[in-house]
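BUG: 3D viewer hangs when loading the predicted structure for this chain

Environment: internal workstation, default settings.
Expected: structure renders.
Actual: progress bar stalls at 90%.

Input used:
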Amino acid sequence: MSKNVLIITSSLRKNSNSEMLADAFMRGAEDAGHTVEKISLAGKDIQFCKGCLACQQTQKCVIRDDSVEIVEKMLRADCIAFATPIYYYSVSGQLKTLLDRANPLYSADYQFRDIYLLATAAEDAAETVSGTVTAIQGWVDCFEHAILKKTVFAGGVNGPGEITGHPVLDAAYQAGRQI
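Structure tokens produced before the viewer hung:
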């Protein structure tokens, strides 16, 4: 059965490693017959959450910026993949701000079930990704029907495009195919 897959990339760098990881995941999902949309947070106007919680009553944020459309797409997606570079052992600030602004989804009839994390970092140690997983898992835990299905991590890639030829690109492709 074809699913609606939304990929959100959060690197602001052109030809970023996390973007290339997202592209591999996207090719896999498309090859499996899914409908895929990729949104980059680069250049988007996404303001900080004000913590007013009005969205819990209305399922809409009071701030009018680019996050409103992205959150609406998240609501209707069957599967969401978050692609991020790892900064200081966590998600990028752009992604964290979007996750905060996705608060209207908490009380909404969201469609997503499977969440994927696609992450890259200069550091290659196994624990490098653990804080990033914790950040995404903390968001996922707020949605009782959603699970963090898989994490694909590429360590040891720093400069733009360094992930080229890395075996983790195939792992991302396979994760997309297995949705």
